[in-house]
Amino acid sequence: MNKKTGASAAATATRVVAEDHVDRMLLVWKRELPDLDLATEGIVERIQKLQRYLDRAMNETLADFQLDRGEWWLLGALRRSGPPYRKSPGKLAEDIGLSSGAMTNRLDRLEDAGLIRRLPDPDDRRALQVELTDAGWQAWQDSVGAQARKEALVASALEPEEKELLNALLRRLMLEFEERTGKPLHHEVKAAS
Length: 193
Prior knowledge:
Elements: H1 3-14, H2 21-32, H3 38-64, H4 69-80, E1 86-87, H5 89-96, H6 100-112, E2 116-121, E3 124-132, H7 134-155, H8 160-181
Antiparallel strand pairs: 1-3, 2-3
């Protein structure tokens, strides 16, 4: 991002005159809590409210595809592994932070729905591999596409350079949280090897 892009996006953001719900709440906090850092509170409150909107949209999308969030994450973990979209149950459990018992239950539901299959591990007769079926690949693909269209509607309020600036600022916040806690808060996406 160059300084020109950042300046342009900042100028666009300051042209906004309409007040949102958070602005009205900040006025109360200014009166009631004069020592509170209102800029930080505004950022945090807006991120939390946007997350609620995005969660609601995601829950609606998943309901349309008869998936829950955990099943969707598991299908995504298999998809991210790359062709042939196959992993061991233990590796999947590690990737998405589940116990082996919870993983077994989730795999059972997805297998019953025809979205995954369990196969013998060709390298270890005692082990299994979990593979995404064509139906599972399509369910994940279609659900991601549907959710991306909803998210694009939200993001359409921003100009391309504003999206770049917002992404850069949010990335800085994420990196700070990860540095302070020592790890990402949610599922770590690992590149396929």
